[in-house]
Amino acid sequence: MNATPTVQGAPQSVIVVGGGIGGLAAALALTRQGIAVQLLEQAAHIGEIGAGIQLGPNAFAALDALGVGATARQRAVFTDHIIMMDAVDAREVVRIDTGDAFRERFGGPYAVIHRADIHLSILEAVQQNPLIRFRTSTQIASVAQDGKRVEVTDTEGNRYQADAVVGADGVKSVIREHLIGDPPRVTGHVVYRAVVERDNMPEELRINAPVLWAGPHCHLVHYPLRGGQQYNLVVTFHSREQEQWGVREGSKEEVLSYFQGIHPRPHQMLDRPTSWKRWATADREPVEQWGQGRLTILGDAAHPMTQYMAQGACMALEDAVTLGEAVKRCDHDLEAAFRLYESVRIPRSARVVWSTREMGRLYHARGVERTVRNMLWTGRGQSQFYDALQWLYGWKVENCLAGPIQP
């Protein structure tokens, strides 16, 4: 860790708004540069909702840079493959091996993990860090800055000052609203998530891989969690309703109504969950500028994306590490560091947002488009798959401030 920089005898300070994966990771990254962090979280308790997430080699590179990679690995399930199946006829469309050759190529594994477990792996390090202070039950109402300081005010009228502010306050970010004020792009796609105990999972589907069943205007995903004792189940469909961005309880009846004509093998999973959480999804159009002065944003506040490439949490982790590296590169000139950080993160995250949208189209293809989709990867070898993924999984702390990642 670098020597702590001082401003009139006090350490530099940054307020991080939001205690999710991105916010905690940003707090860790900044303290590794000797910066004191005040972390403000609107929930009464810092934690995560949801079920499983996937972590590519780029996520593990970021976790290692934050000093929590070993802890996360202990809680993760390392997969053998990434598999896409056709949900109509149960044929295999593509299989990417994620074993030794994959790890050697990208310098890290592919894994799945419960969202609460990855969050806890970072939170434990944050709780042990003397440069980080918590405040929960704190909802931010406004933010203002002058040439030297930034001040945020919460809904109770309390004010907090620091040298800079990082908004990691999620998809409905108050900090983004202040900086950009752009509307979300509601996709009309609905995601249901559930966790199924191992004994309730069909034995033929207990596969050590993220398996995606691509159907017409819908798809299913399943993979193991917590040593294979549980399975994450995610289903997605194009809603008939006019959706609004948000989360609520779901119903099995609604799920079943969207999965007509699906092969019995994947369809049997729809009866397994005892409860569902329902997400109406949205993303935002990429923009040319995230921050101003001593304000910036990261994670879902900066680049909310749909789930089709399983990169939401991975991008937030990359953001955090890149922000810390930019502070170091700019010799703790925070305003310059924020602009450097944005200059590399905006185009990379935009590429992921746009690529994710296209993957959603491929997953939900029907008719002739489905036929073409199923032909796209025919005859492709594993090295060719790896070459195509280099731009995404080749990210490391050593190249995080460079331009586009080359094969």
Automatic annotation (TrEMBL):
Name the keywords, alphabetized. Aromatic hydrocarbons catabolism, FAD, Flavoprotein, Monooxygenase, NAD, Oxidoreductase
Which organism does this sequence originate in?
Answer: Achromobacter insuavis
Which reactions fall under this protein's catalytic activity?
Answer: 3-hydroxybenzoate + NADH + O2 + H(+) = 2,5-dihydroxybenzoate + NAD(+) + H2O
Tell me where in this chain the FAD-binding domain is found. 13-326
Family indicated by similarity: Belongs to the 3-hydroxybenzoate 6-hydroxylase family.
Q: Write the gene name.
A: mhbM
Q: Which residues form the signal peptide?
A: none
MF term (GO), any: FAD binding
How is this protein named in the record? Answer: 3-hydroxybenzoate 6-hydroxylase
EC number annotated for this UniProt entry? 1.14.13.24
Its domain of life reads: Bacteria
KW Oxidoreductase (keyword) present:
yes
**Needed co-factor(s):** FAD
